[in-house]
C-alpha cells in the first residue's frame, strides 16, 4: 500500500467528540504505582549490556519505553527485568552496540 492509498482519519470534528467516541486507555489510578506491578514476565527476548562498551550516551535510557535501564555513574549497568518487555529498542538505539538481545531462558 502506498502512502497515497493509506486511509486518512477524519479528525476535523475532534472538539465535538464525547465519551462515546473515545475509548478509555491505560489509567494511572495513583501516581507512582508502577513499582507495585511486575509487567516484564511475557517477554521472549532480554537485553544484555556489555558495560565495557557503554559510552554513557544515555540513548538506551531515553528510548526505553518502560524506564528499565539501570544507570550508575552515568553508564548503563543493568536492566530492570520486572518491567522490561524485551522490545529491543535499547539495543537498536545503542550506537556503541553495547546492548544485545538474547532469548530469555524461562525457569
Give the helix tally: 2
Label the structural class: mainly beta
Under CATH at level 1, the class stands as Alpha Beta
User: Can you tell me the number of structural domains?
Assistant: 1
- State the helical fraction: under 10%
The CATH architecture can be named as 2-Layer Sandwich
**Portion in strands:** 15-25%
The CATH topology is given as Alpha-Beta Plaits
Largest sheet: 2 strands, antiparallel
In what order do the strands lie side by side in the largest sheet?
Answer: 1-4
Determine the N-to-C terminus distance: 43 Å
Uncertain runs are none
Mean pLDDT comes to 82
Total strands: the figure is 4
Tell me, what's the shape?
A: extended
Order of helices and strands, N to C? Answer: EHEEHE
Radius of gyration: 19 Å
Summarize the structure in short.
With 107 residues, the chain is mainly β. It has one domain (18-103): Alpha-Beta Plaits (2-Layer Sandwich). It has helices at residues 59-63, 89-93; strands at residues 45-49, 69-72, 75-79, 99-103.
